[in-house]
Amino acid sequence: MKVSFVFLLACIHGFCLSQSFRDTASFAQEQYKAKNYDGALSSYQSAQQIQVAEKNFENEKEMATELGQAAYRSGNYDQAIENFEKALKKETKPENRGVLYYNLGNANYKSGNTQKAIEYYKEGVKVLPKDLEMKYNLSQLLRKKAAQNKENKNQNQKSENSKSEPNDGPEQKPKPSKYSFEEQQKQKLLNDLLKDAANTKRRLEKNKNDASTKAKDW
Q1: pLDDT, tens digit, for every residue of 49-92?
Q2: Domain 91-150, CATH among 3.40.50.2300, 1.25.40.10, 1.20.1730.10, 1.10.10.10
Q3: How far apart are alpha carbons 100 and 118 in whole angstroms?
Q4: Is the pTM of this model over 0.90?
Q5: Which is nearest to 32 in space by CA: 74, 81, 61, 88?
C-alpha cells in the first residue's frame, strides 16, 4: 500500500510537470504570434528548463527551433545560433535541415560572423537548391567579401608604398659610392696641379723680395 502511494505521487508529479511544460510552451507560442519576442523568449526558456527537469527530450528539437526563432527576433543572436545548432543535430529531414542552415546563416551574419554565415548558406543551397532567397543572401555576402578583400589588398599596397618613400623620420645614411680608378687619377692630378701652383706662387714671391733688397740705396 505504501509503495502504491509513492508511485501515485510520482505519477501526479510527472503529470504536473508535463502539464506545466505544455502550458508554458503554448504561452510562449502565443507571445511569439503576438510579436512579443522578448516575452516569448523568456517563456520558451522556462519551458526548456521544465523539459530538462522532466528528462523528456521527445520535443527537444522543436523546442530548440522555436526558442532559436524567438531569440533571433529579440536580437539574442548567440542564443539563436546555439539553439539552431542544437536542433540541426537532431534534424534528419533535408527540407528542415535546409531551413535551419538558412536560419544559422542569418543569425551568424547578424552576429558579425560573415564567413560562418557564408558556410551555412552554402550548405543550405546544397539541400535547397531552388531557394532563391538563400541564394541571394549567399551571393550578396560573397560579393561583399570580395570587395573587402580587394580593399584590404589596396590598403596593404599603399602601406608598402609609403614605407619606400622618404619621410621626416631619422636621417638616412648615404650609400657609399663605388670605387673608380679613373676618378682617383683625376683627383690625384688635380691635387698635383694645385700643389705646383702653390710652389710657383711661393717662388715668385721670394724672387720679388730678393729684388727689392738688392735695389740701389740713393
Answers
A1: 998 888 877 889 999 999 999 999 999 999 999 999 999 999 99
A2: 1.25.40.10
A3: 14
A4: no
A5: 74
